[in-house]
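Re-run with default settings, no changes from the original entry. Doing this only to confirm the output is reproducible before filing.
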Amino acid sequence: MKDKLIPLAIIGHFVSFVAIVVLLAWYWQNYLAKPEQPIQFPHNVHAGNLNLDCQFCHQYADKGRFATVPAMKICMDCHQTTATDRPEVQKLIKYWENKEPIPWVKVHTRFRKNSNVGFRHKPHIRAGVDCAVCHGQVEMMTTARMTRTMDMGFCVQCHRANQAPTDCWTCHQ
């Protein structure tokens, strides 16, 4: 009897481990990675079908620390006349007409103001790092989402692979 319990216990632990990993992956995929936005912005249409460069909308990515949320005027330059019958564009127009900022939910929250990590987009863009390295294939996403954990290990591995500086002061300021 004891001989049968040990293999069953091992199998039970393995199945439990796999179930936990699957549940955590599902939770990440469905809740943590996709915040609910006030307007559903289809990156797959803008960056994919229309082939707009990331910096067309995120104009400050190569100039400063943050890529920033695009100014509403960038959206309205096209959407005053294009796709105005679509519900999400109508939401955009309403914010524009009411002179209200869109309360976007930040997708990539790893490098917060209180963090000791001094990440900047500017040197990465100047070095030719493709946005997809950190942000994933945004041109295929209907909803912007995190695709990487952006933890220290990810950054150090990328720096080593690309012969970028790995001393502590490069990022921790």
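Residues 61-68+107-173 form one domain. Helices lie at 2-32, 43-49, 54-57, 72-79, 87-97, 121-126, 132-135, 152-161.
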